[in-house]
Amino acid sequence: EGGIIWHTQGSGKSLVMVWLAKWVLENNPHARVLILTDRIELDKQIKRVFEDTGEEIYRTKSGKDLMKHLNQVNPRLLCTLMHKFGARVDSDAFIEELEKTPAQVQGELFVFVDECHRTQSSKLHKAMKAVLQTAVFIGFTGTPLLKKDKKTSMEVFGKYIHTYKMNEAVEDEVILDLMYEARDIDQRLSSPEKVDAWFEAKTKGLNDFQKFALKKKWGTMQKVLGVRQRFEKIVSDIVLDFSTRPRLSSDFGNAILIANSIHEASRYFDMFQSTPLKGKCALITSYNPIPQDIATEDTGASTETEKEFVYKTYKALLGKQTTEKYEDKAKEKFIKEPASMKLLIVVDKLLTGFDAPPCSYLYIDKKMQDHGLFQAICRVNRLDSEDKQFGYIVDYKDLFCKVENAVSVYTSELDYDRFDKKDVDVLLPDRLSKARERLDNALEALALLCENVESPKDSLAFIRYFCGNPEKEADLKNSEAKRVALYKGVVSLIRAYSNIATELGEAGYTPQEMQEIQAKVDFYGKLREEIRRASGEVLDLKTYESDMRHLMDTYIQAEDSKRIDPFQDQSLLEILLKHGIEKTIDALPERIRKSEDASSETIANNVRVKIIKEHLTDPAYFAEMSRLLEEIIKERKAKAISYQEYLAKIAELTKKVYNIQRSDLPITIRTNAQRALYNNLGKDESLAISVDEAVHSSKMADWRGNIARENPIKYEIYRILKDKDEVERISSWAIFP
Question: What region does 110 belong to: left with phi over 0, alpha with psi -120 to 50, or beta?
């Protein structure tokens, strides 16, 4: 029995096809599976998905080739295009002919039809069913069915087998939610007088120098926007987004622009060549320039028709390569190298079945509706790195129906017979209202996290709260969860603020609230750095440091002059060893630097982290270092030594932690492993040498974590020590490669 599987766009529909095909083939020795799509791009993608999961699938070359292989036992798994069932499907006589002479199919055929709402509403499905009369048909769709489609789809496939709707996938975090923003370019930029006001509104978070730099970078913004042509205004609008929106200005995000025609797409592409996106945008329309296209287009020396413009654009763009080769390269770059391919300009291509996780913004300048519109906007709902939290839809055509605080994707009536309206309707929240909600939540979460910090809530109080008491060795580890919550909370705040920083007024904040928010963002950004320094933690900043840098450089104007820090990429202890204690104090964040107690605890925590990390390389030695650190901290707490004496002792201890002393070692103890064995085996020189030789004579490559390779080493150590506990203790040390 067949049916329909409705799994929303981006939720892994292609993978469901793979798993279902595997299950059918594994459980039915006579079964064969044919995957049907209606576009070459989807056909290629299906083949790629199956092969990436280790499944061999045959992609047919023609209708004749399809019939040939269906009449054979193998291959059991095939994919093909719908139109290969016949070029004359609009002919009733042709369909009757097919019904009289169905294909001779070997085995029990299961046909998976992708995007079944689109491919089964014409005579095409009749031709397909006429050829494959004994097959079981399963339709896959990523969009809810319209009432006008329902009858046809149900007749062809039967009832729903399974549904996984958009709201469920968003809730399960399988796909991203979508944010909507309408931009009425014509109204907002209808006169030159509004250009400066628009630019000021867009860049209100920037200082005068940064505004001047942006204008200069874009070749005088006034000149570009002063032209009263709509395309140029949209191009400038998009260019500005790529400079001010964190995801687009990073190396990880890119966008798609949907144009109304190949000519308009070509115009857009030509205009982007005079912007910073030159060399980082591509034109994807499948157009192949041939001389016949313009053979009858000669209208005079000073006139260029639309066809001539498209032809010349493509000839200059392609050079000697084919359109297919050019587009394949551009698509691969867009997916794998988003920093090098920031924008794809399309008309109809890539709006279904194109999976590009970096794609974050979709700019729509084309009249679309219902299934086509829904499939298009889902190009930006794929999961990617942490800094992509939503997919953004920018609408220049006012395509969507307004519904309370959201917009509805579908203008036609959906099929509500089997589902609740709330489950079927596809509503996109307004970007500004959602952005304000995110910013308020992020600020509230950080306020709650810091609520229990003791007064006067200065640097020392925050360090104590997030790092613990330096006299207690376990405190730093036990407070790790709070620090992680702080780091994540600050990142969430940075991203929420960055996405709305230039539009706080439009989002409903008063001028006073805007100042307070900026001050809080500045405070929490600095607090994160203080705690990171105080705890001696090195964060993996790749996923969000670009957001932090973008925010601090673009929106936050520091009260103090900017410090040029030559130690930015060095740990405090590395600075201490290379440049001395004074330079180390200078490298601390300002609020910590002003407090002797906060500085003392920050440096002590950094030494503690190093001792903990290195402990297993020589337990006895670093246990002694830990004891010495505790003595120094107690002396400082008891005021037995001055701040300067404390710093001098810490500096000396740091040198011992980094450069393990060997002056008291016997001459035969030469390596780090031998030294660790000597220190931890009662300083028995011959015993340390014997164990070291036993390990090296029996160890094999990649032995750690491999029980079969660890056991011979342990056996050799046991032969010397005759103590199982000692064998386990020594083998746990990180002293042998």
Answer: beta
Calpha distance 252→171 (Å, rounded)? 24
Q: What is the reported pLDDT for 452?
A: 93
Q: Residue 503 corresponds to which tokens in the numbers above? A: 């539009």
Determine the Cα–Cα distance for residues 36 and 111; give it in Å rounded to an integer.
7
CA separation for the pair 282, 344 (Å, rounded): 5
- In angstroms, rounded to a whole number, what is the distance separating the alpha carbons of residues 411 and 404? 15
What's at 631, amino acid-wise? E
Angle 126-130-134 from CA coordinates, rounded to 5°: 120
Residue 501, sorted as left (phi over 0), alpha (psi -120 to 50) or beta, turns out to be: alpha
Give the burial class of 668: count Cβ atoms within 10 A of its Cβ; 0-12 exposed, 13-18 middle, 19 or more buried.
exposed
Residue with tokens 């622009």: 257
395, amino acid identity: D
Mean pLDDT of successive 10-residue stretches along the chain, which has 737 residues: 86 90 93 87 85 89 83 90 61 56 81 74 64 84 70 71 85 88 62 56 67 56 44 89 88 94 92 94 90 64 71 91 92 94 94 88 88 85 89 85 58 58 65 88 94 91 90 84 91 85 86 92 89 74 46 42 41 72 79 82 81 72 79 81 84 78 71 80 85 82 74 84 82 58
What are the DSSP E strand ranges found in 463-592?
A: none
Give the whole-angstrom CA distance, residue 307 versus residue 316.
14
Distance CA 674, CA 631 (A): 28
Type of residue numbered 397 = K
Please enumerate, as own/partner, the contacts of 23-28 that have beta carbons within 8 Å and a separation of 24 or more: 24/110, 25/76, 25/77, 28/108
Question: Which of 387, 568, 587 has the alpha carbon at shortest distance from 495?
Answer: 387
Report whether CATH 3.40.50.300 matches the domain 3-164. Answer: yes
C-alpha distances out from residue 100 to 127, 131, 559, Å: 12, 9, 84
Strands (E), 302-423: 343-346, 359-364, 391-395, 401-403, 406-408
DSSP-assigned beta bridge partners for residue 31: 108
Report the C-alpha gap between 506 and 432 in whole angstroms.
8
d(CA 131, CA 101) in angstroms, rounded, equals: 8
Structure tokens at 508: 């409903």
DSSP string, 40-84: HHHHHHHHHHHHHTT---EE-SSHHHHHHHHTSS--SEEEEEGGG
347 vs 462: CA distance, rounded Å: 54
DSSP 8-state class, residue 414: B
Amino acid letter, residue 166:
M
**CA 547/CA 484 separation, integer angstroms:** 18
Contact 365, 397 (CB under 8 A): yes
Beta strands 401-403 and 406-408 are antiparallel
Around 287, how many Cα atoms within 13 Å sit in the side-chain half-sphere? 29
**Per-residue model confidence (pLDDT) at position 276:** 92
Counting every residue, how long is the chain?
737
SS3 state of residue 232? helix
Cis peptide before 75 (omega within 30 of 0): yes
Give residue 381's region: left, alpha or beta (phi > 0; psi -120 to 50): alpha
Distance (Å, whole) CA 651 – CA 539: 24
Distance CA 504, CA 390 (A): 19
Reduce the DSSP state of residue 183 to 3 states and report it.
coil
Residue-level pLDDT at 229: 67
Residue spans of the domains in the chain: they are: 3-164, 178-429, 434-657, 672-731
Q: What do you get for the CA distance between the two ends of the chain, in Å? A: 60
Place of tokens 């036992």: 73
Give the Cβ contact number of residue 491 at 10 Å: 21
Q: Which of 158, 112, 115 lies closest to 3 in space, CA to CA?
A: 158
Superfamily, domain 178-429: P-loop containing nucleotide triphosphate hydrolases (3.40.50.300)
